From TrEMBL:
It comes from the Eukaryota. It comes from Aphanomyces astaci. Residues 91-111, 118-142 have a biased composition (Low complexity). Residues 151-431 form the DUF7164 domain. This is DUF7164 domain-containing protein.
Length: 457
């Protein structure tokens, strides 16, 4: 009934081994539990905190934090802290942290897209103009999505004693503006108003639908996004200096303090002559750079050298940008800052015994003093890379064959010949009998110009 002594000794030995194995196993289990809990405690108390706007200092921080969390994760999500990091403060969405992966996607940088205009600003008949890119823009340039709805004022001046300017205002500028605002959905663009500054003797000849502003120092508050036309009286005093050079009357109102509140209520200004039409495409044209049209005054190296010499004499900067047109489109504040300096430069030229010497056009012609002054101030105020001399879709010839959808602004240049010319228009050569509406293809700029003049649609 009793085991032999040898068997008892073997049993005791087996029991002892079993006890030792059990003790080792329990010790390892305890150490693993403690270590695992220590890791959880470390992650919750010393690991990365949820990423917020205050903890993200640059684009590289979020990826460091996210990777740290991923490396501490276990395949068992129940034993890890349940706090989920907030998404980084970037415009790109970041995928939520999965429990079984160790690598999260890198947050994308929020970089403004290059400017996109609707329609294309590059007529098919001309070389593509340079496009602004984020790398060559001022730091203050807003993202594209915030500038598409900027408010714009188209501004011009109508002097006294010139019926031709009245006709141009009514049948070119106003009629094309009126056509355009009714052919572009206002929900897809910012407001574009037309402001006509006019001598008191021609106020009644302005388009009757335009609102007469008796107190321009108090800009009207828009009740909606509706585009409006305003007429503001601007009658130069009899002793005004610029009676000796009447071209400057088309600009001096921009330096008049009384009009500053009205003009500053807009994001951008388009300063233009009256013998122009705008197209529906202009209403969505919001370039990042300051845009000027073509300047038909610079043809000789002598003229370029003389303007640079003038810049040195009056302590201004010339960056080598020539042929700056009189049509300006850009930030309202910047435009209003440049005009007073432009008047100073023009006055200096006219009063200077050195520069007020007629040498004939185009060598050096006093009749284009305003153009010389405009070129100087644009070079002085704006970095060259932020100026777009856009002859492809601004100041386009009125008898051109460009597609209207690729043009923003067309100009009836003096002395031009072809389908539509200023001289024939002023002589009454164009009529509805000669040019029936159905014969005009307004998809082409020359026909569009004619249709605006004769029909307004």
């Amino acid at each position: 009934m009793f085991a032999a002594p040898g068997h008892r000794r073997k049993g005791v030995a087996c029991l002892a081994v079993a006890v030792l194995v059990l003790l080792c196993f329990n010790t390892m289990t305890l150490e693993w539990i403690v270590m695992h809990k220590d890791m959880a405690f470390f992650a919750s108390n010393h690991g990365p905190k949820p990423t917020t706007a205050s903890t993200v200092e640059n684009e590289s921080n979020p990826i460091v934090h996210v990777t740290g969390i991923a490396l501490l994760q276990s395949t068992s999500s129940t034993e890890m802290p349940t706090t989920t990091p907030s998404p980084p403060t970037t415009s790109a969405p970041v995928a939520p942290t999965p429990t079984s992966t160790t690598v999260l996607p890198t947050p994308a940088k929020s970089t403004p897209s290059p400017p996109t205009t609707l329609p294309s600003s590059q007529p098919t008949t001309s070389a593509a103009p340079p496009r602004a890119t984020p790398s060559n823009l001022p730091l203050t340039t807003p993202p594209l999505e915030t500038i598409g709805f900027e408010t714009v004022a188209i501004v011009t001046y109508v002097p006294d004693k010139h019926v031709k300017f009245i006709n141009q205002t009514q049948h070119m500028l106003w009629s094309s503006w009126n056509y355009s605002i009714h052919h572009v959905d206002p929900r897809a663009r910012g407001r574009t108003d037309l402001i006509i500054f006019a001598h008191r003797n021609v106020m009644e000849e302005m388009p009757p639908s335009c609102i007469r502003l008796a107190h321009p120092a108090l800009p009207p508050v828009p009740s909606s996004n509706r585009d409006r036309c305003f007429v503001v009286e601007q009658t130069p005093a009899a002793d005004n200096y610029w009676h000796r050079y009447g071209f400057m009357f088309s600009l001096i109102y921009l330096a008049e303090p009384t009009f500053q509140p009205l003009l500053m209520s807009y994001d951008r200004l388009l300063r233009t002559d009256t013998d122009v039409v705008i197209t529906p495409a202009f209403l969505t044209f919001r370039p990042r750079r300051f845009v000027v049209g073509r300047g038909g005054y610079m043809y000789h190296d002598y003229t370029k050298a003389r303007i640079k010499e003038l810049a040195v004499d009056i302590n201004m900067t010339h960056q080598g940008l020539h042929s700056v047109g009189s049509t300006w489109f850009g930030n309202a504040t910047l435009t209003l800052q440049m005009v007073p300096k432009m008047l100073e430069v023009a006055k200096f030229i006219l009063d200077s015994p050195k520069y007020n010497v007629e040498q004939g056009f185009p060598r050096w012609h006093i009749g284009v003093t305003s153009m010389y002054a405009g070129e100087l101030v644009v070079n002085h105020f704006i970095p060259k890379d932020n100026v777009w001399v856009n002859s492809a879709s601004l100041d386009v010839y009125s008898n051109g064959i460009e597609k209207t959808i690729n043009v923003y602004h067309s100009h009836c240049w003096p002395g031009s010949s072809g389908f539509f010319t200023k001289s024939e228009y002023e002589d009454g050569e164009y009529s509805v009998d000669k040019f029936p509406r159905e014969s005009l293809d307004i998809a082409v700029i020359k026909d569009y110009f004619m249709a605006m003049v004769l029909y307004g649609y």
